[in-house]
Every structure is written in structure tokens, then in C-alpha cells.
Amino acid sequence: MFLRKLLVMVVPLLLAAALCLLLPLLSGLGFWSNVLKGMLMGIALALLLPLSGATRRKEPFATLLAVPLLLLVLTVIYQYLASIGAARIPVLDMLATSEGQVVLVECVFIGYMGTQALRTRR
Fold first, then answer.
1. Cα(37)–Cα(26) distance, rounded to whole angstroms?
2. How many CA atoms lie within 13 A of 98 on its CB side?
């Protein structure tokens, strides 16, 4: 019982330390820097509870995460294409942003939902 409690306390700290060491290494990649950082943070959030020992393997609605996941992936792809000037669709101009924080947050959700959908599928 003690080891399980210790695992619950130590794993989040180790995961946070790993992210703190890894994220600065990805800073020089431009647009893809925020994409990779967001994906890593989303995956880390999704794996936080299972690595700490709290698991629920079967979730009947996990496949529904594919819909917002696909929409966010398409949004990030469009944002990238708009930032390099390869695509411009007037209706979608409100989605086109070069703000790193916006792309980072979108990719956190992509990483989280993708990991959860894969981890809890039937």
C-alpha cells in the first residue's frame, strides 16, 4: 500500500520534471515548436492518472473523442497552411492565427484526446 501511495505522489513530479527538461529543447522549431510542445503536454496529462495507478480501461464514449480531435487537427493544419501563405479561405480566416499560445493549447487538447481515445477504446 505504501508503494502505491508513493507512486501516486512521485509519478506526477517525475512527469513534470521530464516536461520541464524536454520543452526548452523544442523551442527552435518555429510553428512546429508549439505543436510538439502541446502534443507532449496533452499526452502527459492523459497519462498522468494511469501512470499514477488510477486506471479505467473501458470507456464506451471514447470513440466520440475522434470528432473534436479531427476538427482540431484540421484547424491546426489550416493554421499552418495560412501561416506559410499556402491557403486562404475567407470563411476560415477567423481560425488562422500565428499566436503560439493558441496553437499550443489546441495541441494540448489534441494530444490529450488522442491519447484518451487510444487508451480507453473498446
1. 7
2. 6
pLDDT at 24: 77
Q: What is the pLDDT of residues 39-97, one digit of tens each?
A: 888 888 877 767 656 566 666 666 677 778 888 888 888 888 888 888 777 777 777 77
Q: Are 117 and 47 in contact (CB under 8 A)?
A: no
pLDDT of 110 > 70? The answer is yes
Cβ(115)–Cβ(42) below 8 Å: yes
Residues 6+ apart with CB under 8 A from 18: 44
Cα separation of 119 and 36, whole Å?
20
30: left (phi over 0), alpha (psi -120 to 50) or beta: left
Residue 49 in grid coordinates: 492518472
With b for 16 or more beta-carbon neighbours within 10 A and e for fewer, the 45-59 pattern comes to bbbeebbbeeeeeee
